[in-house]
Amino acid sequence: MSLWTANEAAAATGGRAQGEWTATGVSIDTRTIQPGDLFVALKDARDGHEFVAQALDKGAAAALVSRIPEGVDPTAPLLVVPDVLVALEALGRAGRKRMAGKVIAVTGSVGKTSTKDMARVALTGQGRIHAAEASYNNHWGVPLTLARMPQDTDFAIIEIGMNHPGEIAPLSRLARPHVAMITTVAAAHLEAFGAIEGIAREKGSIFEGLEPIGHAIIPEDLPVTQILRDCADDAGALVMGFGRDGQAKLVQAKPEDGAIRCRARIGGETIDFTLQTTGAHFAMNAVGVLAALAAAGADLREAAKRLGDWLPPKGRGAVEDLAGLRLIDDSYNANPTSLSAGLATLAGLQGGRRVAILGDMLELGEGEIAMHRGMADDPAMAQVDLVHSAGPRMRYLHDALPPTRRGIWAESATDLAGRLADLVAPGDIVLVKGSKSSKISTVVDALRKAAQTPAPDTKE
């Protein structure tokens, strides 16, 4: 199916198209490019112009460039523009403009990707669904997702993230969502904001891009909920709170055979659904998802049924059985809020000894030492039998734990993974969690290798 013709792409970007070509997709990576894709030569760690010839050799319909790269035929199918990233934004803007369906945008300190995937699965059977791949939520990920969006899309789910102030609002204005959901506000990227209130205001800026009479779905139970509500009010949005209170309320979340049986009230309607996970925080986000989908005009009861097909993404809390033990792989990211949720999941599982293997939580700013140390007082920690840890920040948690709960501390995750036999035993229930850059996933890899078990087949 045609996504962009040469003339359409040139009109959208103001560029100069060479040749008559039709693109069926858009790609920024020659490793995964498909025949018919428009290759976008972005500049990151390396300049994408270096890979244009390779992209064309692999069957790319054309390449979006700011110059004709060395070694490429001057008459090759190209779209030449002054600035590739600006042109990608323009292509995304045009993709959004021609789409007549509903757009749902998701942001939050924790749970953006899993919530986006949850919404995508819940919408199955309700038309043509388009969603961001993986964690494509930044200044190139959002326009890329919009540029890839088929014109006849009925529902689009756009993930929007940030690292620094001022990043969310422009991406939301690009996506122009009908519904915007904030999963939660936590101490993530705190060093760039100084205080949790600053993070809340940045998250709340997602409402600046809402279409007229748009819907804001906000967590109801946070100390900064009022800030989010003020941001939504300033944008003229219709507000629905979700959580233990609010118009979208989680009434019950009952663990049962590795799943959670849930009951919620969404706008006065009682809805039952099941999640194939043990993480109670996923149940809370599912209520927000149902509220967002209802606001977008989806069939609420059908969406609730489909939630049972959703699985947590790899590295984000999926529970799997290895040879002799159960593993909660939550190694993709960490901050105090998500670590607390991970510990609660571990505490809620019945069976053998509960073991937490933790890596440093990064980008927390000046209070990082106190935040690491303070995890020793987390309510769920009382149900954890042993805590192993790696990294200089986790040393403070290690020292704050009582001796009976204090396991091995190592300078790095690699060092910890090398002592696997001392970390776990048959029958253990094991949580592995830390910021991605802490490399705590090397412990997960070591556990799987020891069990000779491949990673579960879930979405990245």
Q: In brief, what are we looking at here?
A:
The chain is built from 16 helices and 22 strands. By secondary structure, it is of the alpha/beta class. The longest helix has 16 residues.
Distance between the termini: 26 Å
Compute the number of structural domains: 3
- Per DSSP, the total helix count is 16
User: How is the biggest beta sheet arranged?
Assistant: 9 strands, mixed
Q: Please identify, by name, the CATH architecture of the largest domain.
A: 3-Layer(aba) Sandwich
Look at the structure and name the CATH superfamily of the largest domain. Mur-like, catalytic domain
> Could you please say which CATH topology of the largest domain applies here?
UDP-N-acetylmuramoyl-L-alanine:D-glutamate ligase
Global geometry = globular
Number of strands: 22
**What's the alpha carbon Rg, rounded to whole Å?**
23 Å
Indicate the structural class. alpha/beta
The helix content is: 25-40%
Which CATH top level class of the largest domain fits? Answer: Alpha Beta
Strand content: 15-25%
Main sheet strand line-up = 9-10-8-11-12-13-14-15-16
Mean pLDDT: 92
Can you describe what's shown?
By secondary structure, the chain is an alpha/beta fold. The chain has three domains: 80 residues, MurE/MurF, N-terminal domain (Udp-n-acetylmuramoylalanyl-d-glutamate--2,6- Diaminopimelate Ligase, Chain: A, domain 1), CATH 3.40.1390; 211 residues, UDP-N-acetylmuramoyl-L-alanine:D-glutamate ligase (3-Layer(aba) Sandwich); 134 residues, Alpha-Beta Complex (Protein-Tyrosine Phosphatase, Chain A), CATH 3.90.190. It has 16 helices and 22 strands. The strands form four sheets. Strands 9-10-8-11-12-13-14-15-16 form a nine-stranded mixed β-sheet, with helices on both faces. Helix 4 packs across helix 9. It is globular and about 70 Å long. It starts with a strand and ends in a 9-residue tail after the last helix. The mean pLDDT is 92.
